[in-house]
Amino acid sequence: MRAIIDAVQQGRLDAEIAVVLSNVPDAAGLESARDAGVPTEVLPHKEWRSRDAYDAALVDKLREHRVSLVCLAGFMRLLSAAFIDAFSNRVLNIHPSLLPAFPGLDAQRQALEHGVKVSGATVHFVTADLDAGPIILQTPVAVLPSDTAETLAARILEEEHRLYPEAIRRVLRGGWRIENRRFIEAAEQK
Questions:
Q1: Tens of pLDDT along 163-180?
Q2: What is the second-level CATH architecture of the domain 92-190?
Q3: Beta bridge partners of 79
Q4: Which of the residues 45, 65, 95, 124 is marked catalytic?
């Protein structure tokens, strides 16, 4: 989230951040957003009777702020089909692996356990299936023989900070389409 704010403030990403919304009142990202002058809202999920009711409240809050693209950054809850439908092909997430490899939690540990030589980061559209939406951008990160889950995660995070704003820029630029599961940009359509 901080990388997205920095990219906007430095003029590398032509966008406006309408709101940073969290389900956790003490999330570190809220303080970063406030420090940068970005509006924040907190909707604790435990205050809602059901996932559907909570997600409906999220949709209402995002619409209230006139959000056109939702960028998940540290939001560790599965979103309902109703939420995803409300922002169809307008919800992005970043994942610390080269999807479809190692979806879900502990991707770096999974990569090490499988003995892969390359891992990385993926920005994708969010669908009802976990970490399975159309891929917008990916970048590789070598897995070193000395890596731990923590050292690999740190190197992947550096790439995530570069990759996520670039993926947002491409989506906002428009001229793309989804064909089957592929994100195809205008330059690729020829």
A1: 999 999 999 999 999 999
A2: 3-Layer(aba) Sandwich (3.40)
A3: none
A4: 95
